[in-house]
Write a structure and sequence with these properties.
Blueprint (H helix, E strand, L loop, with lengths): L3 H15 L3 H8 L3 H8 L6 H11 L3 H8 L18 H8 L4 H13 L20 H10 L5 H11 L6 H8 L7 H11 L3 H8 L12 H12 L5 H14 L15
Length: about 260
């Protein structure tokens, strides 16, 4: 995703944006100040260092691996790629529920027993992963969203309504990553839009408002559902749909704006 020097620029910007001194950040990341300075000077971070840097920055570890252009370890991948059939519906039905019901679903997902990983997660190839759009789409793939899943989930919680194939074009660099897209992707990824814009090289003409509660909850549900098997994901999806009752036969687009 990035050259080594690009990662150093990214880290330097984030520390400056967060107003974190090298020593303070090193302490948060359980690294030495000299180790952090070496990365800032252009040294490539290894897997172990990325695992420490990510939580210290408030990033999901898998996202930082993708942004750094480092192969994602198997243990950071979704448990079951087959769960991608149900992941978007968990979001789509849950965000039509009252906030208390959304939180109930989130607690349920977290309480389900961890099943054994039975297969290696293989995301759909992106023709030009080095493109800035590739990073964002790859992060969504690692939340068990296919192109169609991205289309469906983003449509209900943001103003972005694109064809499924367009997400493949964004991921392969054949469609521009616009400020609107960055803001909406950031909401579903649970990442600050200003930071995602900087990390992908997109200029935001103005500071976007914070994402609405539905989008915040959608990001949390989508992230936690990564640990589910396909069977578990289907169960949660069917429960979310049943909780909607008679209104479960349709979905509102851009729900926070309705």
């Amino acid at each position: 995703m990035m050259e080594d020097s690009d990662f150093s620029v990214m880290l330097a910007w984030l520390l400056d944006h967060r107003e974190l001194a090298v020593e303070e950040f090193a302490d948060h990341a359980r690294l030495t100040a000299n180790e952090v300075r070496a990365v800032l000077a252009g040294e490539a971070p290894g897997e172990g260092m990325l695992r420490r840097i990510a939580p210290a920055l408030g990033f999901q570890t898998v996202d930082l691996f993708i942004l750094a252009g480092v192969a994602v370890p198997d243990d950071l991948a979704p448990l079951d790629g087959a769960a991608e059939e149900w992941a978007p519906y968990i979001v789509m039905d849950a965000v039509h529920l009252p906030v208390a019901a959304r939180r109930e679903l989130l607690r349920l997902i977290r309480s389900l027993p961890q099943e054994e990983r039975l297969s290696v997660f293989v995301p759909k190839p992106l023709a030009a992963l080095a493109d800035r759009g590739g990073a964002v789409v790859r992060m969504l793939q690692y939340r068990n969203l296919s192109w169609t899943g991205m289309q469906r989930a983003l449509a209900v919680v943001t103003p972005t309504l694109l064809s499924a194939s367009t997400y493949g074009l964004i991921g392969s660099g054949h469609k521009e990553l616009t400020p609107r897209l960055v803001t909406d992707f950031a909401a579903l990824l649970g990442i600050d839009a200003r930071e995602l814009a900087m990390l992908t090289g997109v200029h935001l003409p103005e500071v976007p408002p914070p994402p609405p509660p539905e989008a915040v909850d959608a990001a949390a549900l989508l992230w936690e559902a990564r640990r589910l098997s396909a069977t578990q994901a289907r169960h949660v999806s069917e429960l979310a749909r049943s909780m909607r009752g008679d209104s479960a036969n349709c979905y509102f687009v851009n729900l926070p704006g309705t």
